[in-house]
Amino acid sequence: MADHSDELLDAVRELRDLVRLLAEPAIAERDKKRRAELRRLVGRSPKKSRTVFLMDGKRKQADIRRESGINQGDLSTLVKQLRAASLITADAKQPELTISIPSNFFEDGAADER
């Protein structure tokens, strides 16, 4: 029975990923200004982009810092900027992005802003 549940869960996750892929253009249009602001705040920094992807509401800042390699000062500044722009939830201790972004968001440059 556990095997059947695992298969069902895998199928649901696959469907979710497909729906996200299909919905991405509409989500990008809806969040165009907020995504542009996120790109502006993160810039071209690989550490900051890794840091943003770790902001899932489940990790504490210390865990994010350790996993991304960003220093504490840069993380604190980034969290403050993201919160001021309403791009993360109010809980700065365990930040979570308020918009969804695809895994290649920072690689594409401004592809979704056309």
- The residue-averaged pLDDT reads 88
Helix content: 55-70%
Q: What is the tally of beta strands?
A: 0
- Give the DSSP E fraction (strand runs of 2 or more residues): under 5%
Poorly predicted regions are: 110-114
Largest sheet: none
Our count of helices gives 5
CATH topology description of the largest domain:
Arc Repressor Mutant, subunit A
State the end-to-end CA separation.
48 Å
Proper CATH architecture of the largest domain:
Orthogonal Bundle
Architecture overview:
With 114 residues, this protein is mostly helical. The chain has 2 domains: 30 residues; 73 residues, Arc Repressor Mutant, subunit A (Orthogonal Bundle). Helix content is 61%, strand content 0%. It has 5 helices and no strands. Helix 3 crosses helix 4. The C terminus is likely disordered.
